[in-house]
């Protein structure tokens, strides 16, 4: 025997006889074979639009009658017992947006579809990136034509390619042509023509370094170029002047190649004979010409057409063999300091004259002119015609 079921207009399932499922249809192998699915213990079944319930011989089937999944195809709300057994259905008043003639919405690459309740939100998962240019690393910089991978742009997109097309150019976001002939590669390149940049400031030089942005090069003004360290101009190069705010240090060098010299005479200048001996030396024609010692003495000899001294000229005491003041063509003739307050003259290696604070000695005969009575050969300082 079978239990009879029926469904009224509001979707309520009502029993005709004792509620029975396939598991309690009674004894017998044939009866148990009719069972399909699981045991159901319930009082009634109710379906809401777009679902409907259809009674089969041994099963109760649920079906959908909907073809669209937007609010516009839903019938107005009706009370229990209305057509289709629909209760509390959402009316057209809940519709937001336009009709979509499809059964489902599928999100493609880099998009996502979100059900917000009354709307379907379609969003992109792509990230917007702002950039000034795109750099492609060459696979072989040593090749004659190193561009194995080339970044190209056509009216539709950027892309990487190994093929060169004449109707495309490499651009950055500002529209600059980034062809190898016009731009220098960041990784290093050969350049022909000028590389133009902003003048910069002392605090931010136009050419600086990643780890020290206040050290580099900048343009101060017209024809005025500056080297900067720690945000301060240290060396300025102008068209007719070189200005430095820090000392110049040169190598100790030699007489043949002095540290401070001249463009047209590189073996004439200033050097230091012994490193750190507090002296400076002069060279002319690659030969040692003289030096100033740390006491202010001028050693060796200095050749000059004329010398003017506004203070004292301090020289060494000298000796009989090497007088302090001598002559270029007679190095054994001159003057030296014999002792305190006493000088001696040397002539040809001998001493003809001795002058002290209280006496004058002559070591050779003195030959005087014959003179006259009014102007005797030997006279007195205060009485020139007496002698």
Describe the model:
The chain has one helix at 29-32, and strands at residues 5-7, 13-15, 51-55, 60-64, 111-115, 120-124, 150-153, 158-161, 207-209, 212-221, 224-229, 232-238, 242-244, 260-262, 265-271, 280-284, 287-292, 298-299, 325-327, 330-339, 342-347, 350-356, 360-362. It is an all-beta fold and 387 residues long. The chain has four domains: 1-94, no CATH class; 135-196, no CATH class; 207-241, no CATH class; 260-362. It has a five-stranded antiparallel beta sheet with strand order 9-10-11-12-13, with no helix packed on it. Strand 14 (260-262) and strand 15 form a beta hairpin. The chain is rod-shaped and about 175 Å long.
Short description:
The chain is an all-beta fold and 387 residues long. It has one helix spanning 29-32; strands spanning 5-7, 13-15, 51-55, 60-64, 111-115, 120-124, 150-153, 158-161, 207-209, 212-221, 224-229, 232-238, 242-244, 260-262, 265-271, 280-284, 287-292, 298-299, 325-327, 330-339, 342-347, 350-356, 360-362. It is 1% helix and 30% strand.
Labels describing this entry:
387 residues, mainly beta, 4 domains, 5-stranded antiparallel β-sheet, 1 helix, 23 strands, 1% helix
Number of helices: 1
What is the element string, with H for helices and E for strands? EEHEEEEEEEEEEEEEEEEEEEEE
Q: What proportion of the residues is helical, as a percent range?
A: under 10%
Structural class: mainly beta
Our measurement of the CA-to-CA distance between the termini, rounded to an integer number of angstroms, reads 184 Å
Please compute the radius of gyration using only Cα atoms: 57 Å
The shape, in one word, is rod-shaped
Number of domains: 4
Residue share in β-strands = 25-35%
| Largest pleated sheet | 5 strands, antiparallel
Mean pLDDT across residues:
71
| Biggest sheet strand line-up | 9-10-11-12-13
Unreliable sequence segments:
18-25, 28-34, 68-94, 136-149, 164-177
Give the beta-strand count.
Answer: 23
């Amino acid at each position: 025997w079978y239990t009879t079921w029926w469904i009224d207009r509001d979707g309520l399932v009502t029993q005709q006889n004792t509620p029975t499922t396939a598991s309690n249809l009674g004894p017998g192998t044939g009866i148990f074979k009719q069972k399909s699915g699981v045991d159901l213990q319930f009082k009634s079944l109710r379906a809401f639009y777009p679902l409907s319930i259809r009674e089969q011989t041994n099963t109760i089937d649920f079906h959908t009658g909907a073809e669209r999944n937007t609010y516009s195809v839903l019938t107005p709300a009706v009370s229990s017992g209305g057509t289709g057994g629909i209760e509390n259905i959402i009316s057209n008043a809940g519709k937001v947006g336009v009709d979509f003639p499809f059964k489902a919405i599928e999100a493609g690459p880099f998009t996502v579809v979100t059900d917000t309740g009354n709307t379907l939100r379609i969003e992109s998962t792509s990230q917007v990136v702002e950039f000034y240019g795109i750099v492609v690393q060459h696979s072989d910089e040593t090749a004659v034509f190193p561009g194995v991978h080339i970044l190209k742009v056509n009216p539709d997109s950027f892309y990487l390619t190994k093929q060169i097309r004449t109707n495309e150019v490499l651009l950055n976001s500002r529209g600059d042509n980034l062809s190898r002939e016009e731009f220098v590669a960041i990784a290093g390149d050969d350049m022909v023509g000028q590389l133009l940049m902003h003048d910069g400031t002392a605090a931010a030089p136009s050419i600086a370094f990643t780890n020290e942005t206040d050290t580099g090069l900048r343009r101060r003004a017209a024809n005025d170029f500056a080297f900067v360290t720690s945000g301060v101009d240290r060396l300025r190069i102008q068209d007719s002047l070189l200005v430095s705010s820090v000392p110049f240090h040169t190598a100790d060098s030699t007489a043949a190649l002095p540290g401070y010299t001249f463009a047209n005479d590189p073996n004439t200048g200033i050097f230091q004979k012994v490193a750190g001996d507090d002296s400076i030396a002069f060279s002319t024609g690659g030969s040692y010409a003289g030096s100033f010692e740390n006491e202010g003495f001028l050693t060796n000899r200095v050749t000059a057409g004329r010398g003017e001294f506004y203070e004292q000229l301090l020289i060494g005491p000298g000796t009989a063999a090497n007088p302090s003041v001598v002559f270029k063509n007679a190095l054994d003739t001159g003057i030296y300091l014999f002792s305190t307050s006493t000088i001696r003259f040397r002539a040809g290696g001998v001493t003809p004259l001795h002058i002290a604070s209280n006496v004058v000695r002559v070591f050779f005969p003195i030959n005087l002119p014959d003179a006259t009575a009014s102007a005797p050969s030997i006279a007195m300082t205060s009485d020139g015609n007496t002698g």
